[in-house]
Amino acid sequence: MSEIRTVTSEAEDARRKAARPRLWLTVLSLAAFVILIALGVWQIERRAWKLALIERVEQRVHAPAQPIPSPAAWPTVSAANDEYRHVSVTGRFLHDRETLVQAVTEEGPGYWVLTPLQRDDGTQVLVNRGFVPSERRDASTRRGGNPDGQVEITGLLRMTEPKGGFLRNNVPQHNRWYSRDVAAIAATRGLHDVAPFFIDADGGSQTTGGPIGGLTVIRFPNNHLIYALTWFALAFMLAGKLLVTFGGGLFRRKRFVHEPAGGPDATARRTGSDAGTIVEST
């Protein structure tokens, strides 16, 4: 009997030692489960925000053109409230101060032509008149498309693109531009009282022989549902793993409590041995 007690005590000690790392594993797994669920919920919320943003932009793009914000309102112009608004502006182009910004469009590689528009109130607005291929980079190749005098431009209000493009910074001193950075272009071209945004001219503002307008690409990646399903799937896979691991361990512990040492046949073996002893003593 004492031998059985010793074996049982050793087994209990072994189980306690094994339970310590399992406890930490359980805590970490539960924390990971909560984090994965939270990430999934966050992506669902992001998806709702993105769908609302897309709807707002669609309404702005297809609304009738409105005059651009007045200079007094320039400090409050923001991407959230104003970008992609359909606007109109009147003035005179300063063709001798145009800036070419490298671009790749459905028409191929080339340049955006950004030209300052001088307004009657003395302020200036940069207008992205459109795209020209590399062979028409020189302004002398498209003089027929440069209108003189007063013009009315309609297009989409766009926010400035500071510093440069992806992995490529603007180099104003060498006239290399990879983004439409309004402040930097204005400083380089000696412009004053310039709006903090620019206008993407639409196709209706295009002139014969001039840049190709109306090429604004409006794209909002919306992969939030896929991300959410991924986080939720990982969370439930982790939960399933925990159930299999610790559920199986609980089942084995219950069997250990109800079965004697040596397995389910031990009682029968001991009973048979005891019976033999009784017979021999008789």
TrEMBL record:
<feature type="transmembrane region" description="Helical">
    <location>
        <begin position="23"/>
        <end position="42"/>
    </location>
</feature>
<dbReference type="Pfam" id="PF02104">
    <property type="entry name" value="SURF1"/>
</dbReference>
<protein>
    <recommendedName>
        <fullName>SURF1-like protein</fullName>
    </recommendedName>
</protein>
<keyword id="KW-0472">Membrane</keyword>
<keyword id="KW-1003">Cell membrane</keyword>
<keyword id="KW-0812">Transmembrane</keyword>
<keyword id="KW-1133">Transmembrane helix</keyword>
<dbReference type="InterPro" id="IPR002994">
    <property type="entry name" value="Surf1/Shy1"/>
</dbReference>
<feature type="region of interest" description="Disordered">
    <location>
        <begin position="261"/>
        <end position="282"/>
    </location>
</feature>
<dbReference type="InterPro" id="IPR045214">
    <property type="entry name" value="Surf1/Surf4"/>
</dbReference>
<comment type="similarity">
    <text>Belongs to the SURF1 family.</text>
</comment>
<feature type="transmembrane region" description="Helical">
    <location>
        <begin position="225"/>
        <end position="246"/>
    </location>
</feature>
<dbReference type="GO" id="GO:0005886">
    <property type="term" value="C:plasma membrane"/>
</dbReference>
